[in-house]
Amino acid sequence: MLCPRARLLSHILSSSIRTKSTSSTISPSHTSLPSFLAHARSTALSPTSPVYIGTYYEYLCQQTLSHLGFTLQRTGGRSDQGIDLLGHWHLPSLPYPLRALVQCKALSSRLNPETVRELEGAFVGAPAGWRGDSVVGVLCGKREATKGVREAVRRCGAPVVWVMVEDARDEEGTLREGEGRIRQVLWNARVSEMGVEGVGVGVKYTPAGSDRKVEREVVLTWKGEAWEPVIEEVVED
Predict the structure, then answer these.
(1) Which positions ≥6 away from 78 have C-beta within 8 Å?
(2) Cβ distance 101 to 123 under 8 Å?
(3) pLDDT at 152 over 50
(4) Is the pLDDT at 237 greater than 50, yes or no?
(5) In the predicted structure, residue 141 carries a pLDDT above the cut 90
(6) Spatial distance between the Cα atoms of 216 and 182, rounded to a whole number of angstroms
(7) What is the C-alpha separation between 90 and 149, in angstroms, rounded?
(8) Percent of the chain with pLDDT over 90
């Protein structure tokens, strides 16, 4: 049973994201997964090209992580210090959002512990608004975390969250373009120390199709019950 939805007030991300580097700009052609897909079709961008695969997964993570309370914007550009998304993480246990920097790894193979160390290094190159306290690093991958990755997250000196974001598929295994699923979420003690007491990880099952199949997705819980954020975006003057 879902608990009452928490109402989150999220501001459109500040201009510091858009101007964090003079050589790092967001593409005017696309700012979301639907707009990127439209751009890819209009320019005949091959779905097998590295640019398509990487950009698609970044937007898929941007969209799917909203289910966990994240509001994110793609950074783009060559001087992003390995940071793909920037934004905030709204949690029911805190009166204010945590700042978040995200790296998205679109590899079909499992990631190795080195990627956690790379994320830790990204804290150093983060823009001014995403340094200091109340900042978490998020690493997204398409496969479950290996034992080595889980141990690297646990040992990491920075507050780190691991999220497995995979492509959603229908009953026959066909890709659902533009849809993602969260399969795994874990974080280290540094994140726990930031005020996330009462927030946990659970599994939500929803009916899929007419033959009693169900879809499984990992969700956050609040005080033992599934928590679903409602994000209201308000544009600041």
Answers:
(1) 23, 24
(2) yes
(3) yes
(4) no
(5) yes
(6) 9
(7) 25
(8) 62
